[in-house]
């Protein structure tokens, strides 16, 4: 496996993995739209993320040159309320057939390296409380619970 920066040609593989991620997320939040990234707006959002050179966006590629995972995030320059820069992971996804093979760990390490280069002192991400495998993975990799979101359904 090798890690490299995302390229425009990676769109189809990223879309495939993004849809896998959506399926998992829908199991944690029934309010999420099913396969919204298959829509024109969703596809444009992925293309914009891929083309944004300010994003930290890496892919993991197997021996057959197939993308088996990706990590996507950023270190915003406009966060004036923090004393130190914060990097955000927006998406971390590994193909379901390649999980538990250290792909996510290698992607996370690459993200951390790039975030440090951009002078970030923290990394933040959002995980669903019911997603125990993800939470355990992040804790195993040195993350701790930072904040809690609260949600109220309006009837």
What does this structure look like?
- The chain is an alpha+beta fold and 155 residues long.
- It has one domain (2-140): Gcn5-related N-acetyltransferase (GNAT) (Aminopeptidase, 3-Layer(aba) Sandwich), CATH 3.40.630.
- It is built from 4 helices and 5 strands, in the order E-H-H-E-E-E-H-E-H.
- It has a 5-stranded mixed sheet with strand order 1-2-3-4-5.
- The protein is globular, with a radius of gyration of 16 Å.
- The relative contact order is 0.15.
Q: What is the N-to-C order of secondary-structure elements (H for helix, E for strand)? A: EHHEEEHEH
Going by CATH, the architecture would be 3-Layer(aba) Sandwich
Give Rg in angstroms: 16 Å
Q: Helical content, roughly?
A: 25-40%
Measured distance between first and last alpha carbons: 49 Å
- Strand content is 15-25%
Figure out the total of helices: 4
How many separate domains? 1
Basic shape: globular
Number of strands: 5
Can you tell me the CATH topology?
Aminopeptidase
Low-confidence stretches: none
Taking the sheet with the most strands, its summary is: 5 strands, mixed
In what order do the strands lie side by side in the largest sheet? 1-2-3-4-5
Coarse structural class: alpha+beta
pLDDT averaged residue by residue: 92
CATH superfamily: Gcn5-related N-acetyltransferase (GNAT)
Q: Mind telling me the CATH class?
A: Alpha Beta
Topology:
Elements: E1 2-5, H1 11-28, H2 40-51, E2 56-61, E3 67-74, E4 86-94, H3 103-117, E5 122-125, H4 132-140
Parallel strand pairs: 4-5
Antiparallel strand pairs: 1-2, 2-3, 3-4
